[in-house]
Structures are given as C-alpha cells and as structure tokens.
C-alpha cells in the first residue's frame, strides 16, 4: 500500500525529484566508484567527486558565479541607468548586437530605457527572491520536518496535518491570493508570500529522511553513550538526513525564481521601482509583434538563470543519489 | 476496496476544512478592504459602505463568516459576487472551458511526455537521450508566460498555423496552442521521469526473463516495461494538477481563454473574496479527489498492491 502521507495531497514538480533520492543510510562506507582510491570517502566527498566529472555542473556553476556577480555589482557591468528613459532618441530602438556591453546592445524598450541595463539590474531581485525563499523555506520547513520525524507521536501528527493543509493549496495560486492583499510589494514581501506556501515540500522530505536516519545503529550507539537529544539530532541525524533536502532546495530555487517572474508578470509580484524581469516582460507583451527584442532579452536572461539553478540541482541530485552510480 | 475509499474520503474532510479555512483567512484577514476599494480614489459614503458590508456579511465576526460560508457551501451555494451574480453561475460558465483546456494539455502531456521519455530511456547514454535531456532542461527553464508568448509569436503571429486567441472553447484547433503551452512544463517532467524509470527497469530481472522466454521486443517494452514504469508517472500526473491550475491562470490570460484562470485573475483584481474562495475551494476538492484516484490506479497498474 502506498505511503499515506505522501499520496494524500497534491504537490509540485519538485516532489518527483525527491523520490529519486534515496536517504543516505550507509554514509561512511566507500562507494563502489571510489574503489580505485584506497581511502574511503564520505557521501559528500563522493558527491563532489561525481560533480567534478559532470560537464553540466560546470556549465551551471560558471553561469551562477556570473549571475551572482551581476546581482551583487550591477554597476560593474553597465554604466547606463536602467530607470532613465529617453523617448525622443531611443523609443523602441532595435538592438546593436555588435556594441558589446554598451547601453544599446540589447536595444531600448517602449519607454526609451536601455534593455541591457534593465536586464543587468533586474538580476538582483530575481536572485534575492530565489535565495531568500530557499533559505527561509529550508530553515523553517527543515526544522519542522526534523521535529516531526524525530519526535514522532503527537508532534508528528500536528505538524503533518498542518503540512497536509498547506500542501492542498496550489503553490502559484496561493501566492497570488496572498500577494493580492499587499499594495506595496517589495522583495521581502514576495519572499514571505512564497515561503509561506512553499515550506511544506522541504518539511516532508526532511521528515521522511530523518525517520530513516534515526533508526540507524549509530544513533542508538550515541544514545547509549549518553548523548542528549540536541546532540543526537544535530550531530548524528541531521548530517545523515540532509542530502535529499539539499537536492530539493537547489532544484526549487530555480522554480522560485520562475514563480516570482510569473507573479510579477501578472502584476501580483514585485512592482516598480523594483526592476524585475517579470515586469519588463509584462511591459513588452504589447510590443512583441513588431519589436520582439523588448521581450526576448529579459525572457532569455530569466530562462538562463532558471536553467542555471535547475541544472545545478540536477547535477547535485545525480551526485548524491547512490542508485544512479 | 470500498472500505479503503471510505477511509480515505473521511481523511479528506479535515484537510478540506483546513485548506478552505486557510484560503478563507488569506482572503479576509490580509490587509485591504474590498468594499472600500469599490470607490477607488473617490471618497466613500460611510453609510453606503456599512450597508454593503452588512449585505455581504462582512460586518460579522470571522468565525461566523466562515461558518456561514461552509453551511452555504454544503447546500451548493457559493455566495454571490459584489455585482450580485451567483458565484456558482460564473463558475459553471468557466469550469467546462478550463476542463477542456486541461484535457487537451493532459493528453499532450501523456502522449508526448511518455513517448519522449520512453525513447530516451531505451537509448540511455546515447545521443537521443542527451538530446531529450537538454530539451527538457530548456523547457523547464522557461516560465509558462515566456513559453506562451514565444509559442504565440512563432506559431500564430509569424507562421499563422494556429489562431492566437481562443474565441470558441469548443473548437479543438483553437485550444491546441494554449493546451500545448500549458502542457509543456509537466510534459518535460513526465519525459524525464519516464526516462529514469525506463532506464532503471531495463536492468530488472523480469526484463531478462521476458527476453529469455523469447517474447517479441514490442511486447517486452509495451507491456512489461511500460506497465512497470508507469507508477511514478501516474503519481506525478496526480500531484501535478495543482501546477496545472496555476499555469492555467497565465495561459488563459495570454490566449484569452474565458476559463477559471481568467475568472480567478479578474476576481483577484477586483478583490472579489467570494469568487476567489469559491474557485480555490473547487480546485482543492478536485486535487484531493484526483489524488485518491491516483492511489486507486496503483492497484490497477500493479496487482501486488491491494487495498483492504
């Protein structure tokens, strides 16, 4: 019979990634692939070994470093002002694809603003939302899932029911309703709304891997040696239950960025004066027939960012999943 | 079987009540006054505001409001919009449209997704496999609205193969493009999932047995491999309904489909609390029932699974 708690409610695409990750039970034993080197490697050392040999990991890693640099120091990549529109000279000017890193590289939008500058300055909001939501969700969902999985009993019942209830609400739909109530939608408001509805996936993943990890012999051994609950939880259970959570967190980071852009596109996410690719794509939708470049560049940059995170998550999952070796 | 279904239905009740309470609270507790918003920037007459509040029951305490709503709901009454139309009437216009769109999307998702995944899984590690992997990665990376405008631009505006807007939801040809866009993301996930399970099950013992028995390849792949690989895919399709619903809001907006997504989006703009709660309630119910259906499907796919 299928697991009741898992099959009971709807989920996001992220869930499927979870199923592929087996909870790492035998962590300190050497994987077969590591036999060539005499010394046994830990799960993490093994995963790093796997990662280094994947070209897609390096593609996404380079992309991510670049994107983080752009998000941190947008001024280093363009000298143009993303908010300064010049309608008389630049209204919907076509891109000059040979003018690398110039203000007119990607052309100008319907308000005479440099699309290149807007694409560069829009990176920060997307990355902040993605990283912010993932951080909140991993911390909050992770702790709740850990408590539910480790203590069991009524604590588990209460937390699991709350998770079920939140899980029943479609993620994008729920965040639309929450964000609709706020008129001033800054980055932190969007982070809070997405995290409010997104924490359940991590909680479920963490709960099931903690349940597996707490039954291991080393936990019994630690308890026999007199270790307290806190020590067992954070020194023994958590490190051995973390892998699936990390995989889900990395993959969902891309999904959160995508969700933010979708919400901003609908006018329910970030709002001016915050620069967001979603808003720019929404602004471009009426101009697309004659000036596809207005949409092409922010949409391309958005897709590239999501691609980088999803690919990273993919590579991490493959590296941490012993079944695929 | 009957007892299992009954137990599952009973278990649904607390989740259903909890989720509707959550959505109800989200609509009503969060800042923003829908009645006051009707006047926009203009000054509102306090007496009028008060009488409207009373008419829609917004002057009651929240628990009372929720209780009244639930009692009405179980009698099939979804309340009425601020414009005075019954919400159930609006929904009965919109739901069939979205249902048709979702059916088109689901069909594309299943046929193309499983087909692509099976193709890649049978050629694991070869060029076709890598090609499908990269294709699915690109599709997953593109948010629905980017995909939607891209598809509309290419297939409707430039090539002119399909109409850009849906005027008549009964017309399958008009629903093809939005259905395709709505299906794309899930299709990519279905393809990847099918690929993984196919590649995994290829090494299973029963496959070797089937081969050793001398069964034709078509039967090995089409019956033995496919049936054993479908369980995770069916699970995914069940859990994916929620994502489909969120995607429908965007897709219906882009292609001007007069479905539930559009209804919900308009209701959000006008802060139509009753419509929002009504639509989401129906969605929650549909998702819960589909998940039950998926669990029952397991037994069909895998005779080892029995429900006592």
UniProtKB/TrEMBL annotation, chain A:
Calcium is among the record's keywords: no
Protein name in UniProt: ABC transporter permease
Keyword DNA-binding: no
Membrane-spanning residues: 56-77, 127-151, 163-182, 188-206, 241-259, 295-316
Phylogenetic classification of the source organism: Bacteria, Bacillati, Actinomycetota, Actinomycetes, Kitasatosporales
Localization in the cell: Cell membrane
UniProt-listed PROSITE patterns: ABC_TM1 (PS50928)
Similarity field: Belongs to the binding-protein-dependent transport system permease family.
Membrane topology per record: Multi-pass membrane protein
Pfam family, one: OppC_N
Gene3D superfamilies for the chain: MetI-like
UniProtKB keywords: Cell membrane, Membrane, Transmembrane, Transmembrane helix, Transport
InterPro entries per UniProt: BP-dependent_transpt_permease, MetI-like, MetI-like_sf, OppC_N
Domain ABC transmembrane type-1, first and last residues per copy: 123-313
Automatic annotation (TrEMBL), chain B:
Domain ABC transmembrane type-1: 95-298
Keyword Transmembrane: yes
Membrane-spanning segments: 12-30, 101-120, 132-155, 175-193, 229-255, 275-301
Chief location: membrane
A Pfam entry, by short name: BPD_transp_1
Keywords carried by this UniProt record: Cell membrane, Membrane, Transmembrane, Transmembrane helix, Transport
Record membrane topology: Multi-pass membrane protein
Xref: InterPro entries: BPD_transp_1_N, MetI-like, MetI-like_sf
Subcellular location: Cell membrane
Homology family: Belongs to the binding-protein-dependent transport system permease family.
PANTHER family: DIPEPTIDE TRANSPORT SYSTEM PERMEASE PROTEIN DPPB-RELATED, DIPEPTIDE-TRANSPORT INTEGRAL MEMBRANE PROTEIN ABC TRANSPORTER DPPB-RELATED
Protein name per its UniProtKB record: ABC transporter permease
